[in-house]
Amino acid sequence: MVLSIQVALAALLSVVLASKWWNYRSHMTKLAAIPTVGHSGLLSSYLSAYRFIKRGGAIVQEGCDKYRGGPFKIPLLDKWIVIISSTDMVEDFRKAGDHELSLQEAFRETFHADLVLGKQPAVDPYHVGVIQGALTRNMASKLGDLYDELAAAFNDEIPATNEWVETMAVEKVLRIVCRTTNRIFVGLPLCRNEEWKDIVIDYATRCFTASQSINLSPKFLQPFVGWYVNPRPASFKRANKHLRPIILDRLEKEKMHGLDKDAPQDMLTWLINSGNVDERQRRDPVNLVLSILTTNMGAIHTTSMAFTHALFNLALRPELIDILRQEIEPVIQEEGWTKSATGKLDKLDSFLKESQRVSASFSISVQRKPLKDFVFTNGIVVPAGTIIVASPRAIHFNESNYPNPSEFDAFRSYRLREAEGETKGKNMSYKHHMATPDSSYLTFGVGKHACPGRFFAVTELKLLMSHTLMYYDFKFSDGADGPKRNEFGGRLNLDETTKLMFRKRGDSN
Ligand code: HEM
Ligand SMILES: *[C@@H]1O[C@H](CO)[C@@H](O)[C@H](O)[C@H]1NC(C)=O
Ligand SMILES: *[C@@H]1O[C@H](CO)[C@@H](O)[C@H](O)[C@H]1NC(C)=O
C-alpha cells in the first residue's frame, strides 16, 4: 500500500517534471529562432548579463546595427529579453490587446512592482484611470493653480537676481517640478512641505535602485534581497504621517456631505471619488497613500528629466531662445497663463519633442509581456512569458523615421505640422504633436497603455519652459562643457553635477 503510493507519487512527479522540461524545451526552441547578441551559454550568459548593466546601450546598439530592424534577444541574469527596433513591429505592439501583451505583467516582473509599489498599485492600478480621466479633464480649470505654484517654486528655488547665480540643475528642477506637480496631486500646504518633497523624490530613486538590485541577484536570493532593499515600508511610513490626517479629514467630510463639490479638486479627491474601483478600496487610506506615492513615482523624475534636457539643449543652442520667446510672449500677453495659451505654443511643442528624441531616448524602454505566444505580422513568434522591449533610440535615430537623425532640428515637427495644415487651428489633427504617441515616437510609449499623464506632462513642460524664458537668462557655467551622459543597464540618466547659471532676464532681449 505504502509502496504503491510512493510509486504513484514518483510517477506523478516524473510526469510533472517531464512536462516542465518539455515546456522549457519548446520555449527555448521558439526563442532559438531569434538571433542572440551576447553569449547564450549557461555561464557566459551570466557574464553578458553583468556586461549589460555596464554597457547596455552599446549592446543594444550592436544588435540594432547587426540586425537592422529585425528582432534580437539578449540574456539577462534570470531571463531572456527580446528587443524590437522597427516601426512595423512596434505597430503590432500598439494594436495588441491586454490579453495578448501586458504592460502590467511586464512591470510586475521587471520592476518588482508588487514589492516596491505595493499589491494594490501593482495589481489593480486604478490611479491610471484617474490620471487619464479626472486629471486630464480638469487641467484647464487647474492650470491657474499649477502656474501659481510653479512661479512661487521658481521664486524660492532660483530667486531672479541681476547677478548670475550658479545652480545644480538636476536638483533644482526636481524640487520645482515636485512642488508644482504636488499642488495638483495633494494641494496646499503639503506640496510645499520640504519633507514631503524629500519623501516622494527619494521614493522613485529608491524604487529603481531596489528593482535593479533584485534583478542583479541570483533567483534563489531574490526574496531576501527584495526584503532587504524594499523602499516601500519606510517611504510609506513617512508619507502616511503627512497624508493620513488629510485623507481622514476628507473622508469624514465626504461622509457628512456626500460627494462634496467644495472638496479641494486634486488627485487625492479624484482617487477617493474614482468610479473604477469598489467603495471599500477607493476609501482605504492605505491604498490612497500608495496610489499617491506611485503617481508621484511616474510623474516627477520623468518630467524633471525632460525639462532639464530642454534647458541643456537651449543652453547649447542659444540661437533658439529668441525664436521661442517670440512665440511665447504675444500668446501669454494675450491669453494669460491658460490651457488655451499652452495649446498655441507650436514651436515650443516641436522643440520639446525634439529635445526628448535626441537627448532622452532610452536604448530600451517600452516593455510588454506576452500572455500567450505572440505572433508579429512578419511571422516572428515570441513565446509566452518572454519580455519584449522596444528600442526608442533605434526608432528615433532611424533615417527613414527622421531624416538626418543625428541633427538637432528643433522645428522638425513644426514644419511637418505646417505642411499638413495642422497648426493655427486649420486642421484639428494632432499627428505630429508631442503628446501624440506614434510607432515612430516612443517618448510616452505606444497604444492603449501609452503614458496616461502625457497631456499633463506636456502642458506642465510648456509652462516651465515659458516661465523660464520669460523671466530668466540662463547658460552653462563659464568654461564647463555640456552635460555628460550616464548609462546604467539601458537607462539614460542625467549628469547630476551639471551646473546652470541663472539671472533675471536682461533688457537686451
Ligand atoms: C515627460 C514626462 C513623462 C514621460 C517621458 C513618461 C513616459 C512614460 C512611458 C514611456 C510609459 C510607458 C508607456 C508604454 O509602455 O506604452 C509611461 C507610463 C505611465 N506614466 Fe508616464 N511619463 C511622463 C509623465 C507622467 C506623469 C506626469 C504621470 C502622472 C500624472 C505619469 C504616469 C504614468 C503612469 C501611471 C504610467 C503607467 C500606465 C499603465 O500602467 O497603463 N507619467 N510613462
Ligand atoms: C529603419 O527602419 C526601416 C523601417 O522600419 C527598416 O527597414 C530599416 O532596416 C531600419 N534601419 C535600421 C538601421 O535599423
Ligand atoms: C490634416 O493633417 C493630417 C495629418 O497631419 C493630414 O493627413 C491631412 O491631409 C490634413 N488635412 C488637411 C485638410 O489639410
Automatic annotation (TrEMBL):
Binding site residues for heme: C451
Pfam family for this entry, one: p450
Cofactor requirement: heme
Signal peptide range: 1-18
Keywords: Heme, Iron, Metal-binding, Monooxygenase, Oxidoreductase, Signal
Coiled-coil regions, chain positions: none
GO MF annotations in UniProt: heme binding; iron ion binding; monooxygenase activity; oxidoreductase activity, acting on paired donors, with incorporation or reduction of molecular oxygen
Transmembrane parts of this sequence: none
Family of the protein in this entry: Belongs to the cytochrome P450 family.
Protein's UniProt name: Cytochrome P450
Species this chain originates from: Marasmius oreades
